[in-house]
Amino acid sequence: MPAPLTSRTWLWLFVLVLGVAFLVGIGSWGPLESSEARYAEIGREMLVGQDWLHPRLLGIQHFHKPPLTYWLTAAGLALFGPNAEGVRILPVLAVLLQVLLVYGLGQLLFQGDRARALAAAIIYGTLPVVLISALNVTTDAYLATLELAATYGILRYYHDGRRWGLYLFWVGLALAFLTKGPVGFVLPLMAVIGFYFRQKQTRRPFTIHHAVGIVLFVLLGLSWYLYLIIENPAFLRYFLFEHTVERFANAATFNRAKPWWFYVVLAPATSLPWAAALLVYAIRMRWASVPQQWRNVLIFWVLLPLVFFSISKSKLLLYVLPIFPGVALLTVYYLGRLTDGVLYRWYVGFVAFYGAVLATLCMLPVVVTVTDVPLQASPFSAIWPAAGILVMILTLTLWSQIRIAPRILVASVLFTVALLISVKPLMQQNELDFNGARPLAYFIKQRHLENRKVLVYNELLPALAFETGRIPVSLNDGNHNLDRETQFEPSAVWRNTLIYLHDAKQQDAVNQLFAQRPVLLVKGSLKPERQWMLRSFTQHQHLGKWTVYY
């Protein structure tokens, strides 16, 4: 970066700019199904019910994940309000912290070279997959932050013996375990193995601080699990088998089956254009010319975790988020070996790629008008990508910086800011198509129907509960997503909000519901044998894929 500002100053400016780009319009659309809405509603119910140990989704206990993400979601709602902003602000802050941690790791791996550490932080903060993780609330943003903190802590301890680094490692591991269980060990464990593998590092002796760290891990990381197991011993098998072994080995357990090559394709695709440069030079450069440290980063931080998650039968894109700090650091290493002449060709390609993406967003209002693309895009939505193109052209044309690396980084930051600001109006305009429920809640309130029972036919819709602040009645007509785990329920109260239409014993409850002049939400159409339900309604309104009967 140009003088006289230091790399740390540029880092904080980047974090500030990225944070503003994230936060502008962050509440323009409501939580989206399924994952984000699920975490948002569990956090809301936890805050309302003040039960911090038994997460509930639509009134039924939900133990698919440890509670840390739910606690943080509830905290966000308490601090920033019961709205989409309250759900999303803390994950954004978690991602910004990841950027700072990548900078810290860069300083360690590049032997104090702050310029390269800065480059790694900027590359990481501009990866599309990282942007997605910040704006799609799940456990993964928090997990990646805690894994990075643990990794930075242990490598800092190995580097100069800082005891706080050792404690950061154990606390980070504990909180990662409280976020997503054993998978939180993957990156820190790989970093430890990579540090020692064929590098002849001096092993540090076991001390009292290691023992204290292990105690902290047990107290923090295992406390919630032990509490529930003591409360009900059946939780031991539930956690160990159903949510560890089954999730990894059985694709049908949580309906997240993907082909083995899912991450092999998606990981590079969601880290473009940086992934293209990394792949080219990781393949081209002779293996013998790469220092052992960087071989280990490639093997243990990227390839082995990628193989591990590819073997798993349950796959979602953000599961592999912990590999991308390694991707960013390796990209800086490989590109740092190139001359400015070679970098210039990549610079031209990057700018062309960024321009093409923003130009496509500019043309989207025209495209959706003349084609059958199932999207909405008002003419005003073209303003932001057009402004992004203009700012990039002016900055890169008028800026006197000769070196190519800073120009690539600045172009990437400008593109990222433009992209983040441009997509939010599109998210708002297409909320129903992206599985949001705010327009449904708005319609119910607009028609003054909020005091009536709301019935949702054959769909799990926590987004509606979050938007209205009330749990709807789910009518299960064979949708496996509505088959809830009720074995830990202390009573049958859950039957008030979940009805199985195929259960003849619940027919009286169904008849009573329809006698109360409810609101019925149907996605698509009713099955022929359920058409009788419509006799209770005189009006209906189509909203995207949904029909509201009232």
From TrEMBL:
Its main location: membrane. The chain crosses the membrane at residues 9-29, 89-110, 117-137, 167-196, 208-230, 260-282, 294-311, 317-335, 347-370, 382-399, 408-427. It is a multi-pass membrane protein. One of its GO terms (biological process) is response to iron(III) ion. InterPro entries: LipidA_mod_glycosyltrf_83, RgtA/B/C-like. Pfam families: PMT_2. Residues 64-223 form the Glycosyltransferase RgtA/B/C/D-like domain. Keywords: Cell membrane, Glycosyltransferase, Membrane, Transferase, Transmembrane, Transmembrane helix. GO terms for molecular function: pentosyltransferase activity. GO terms for cellular component: plasma membrane. It is found in: Cell membrane. This is Glycosyltransferase family 39 protein.
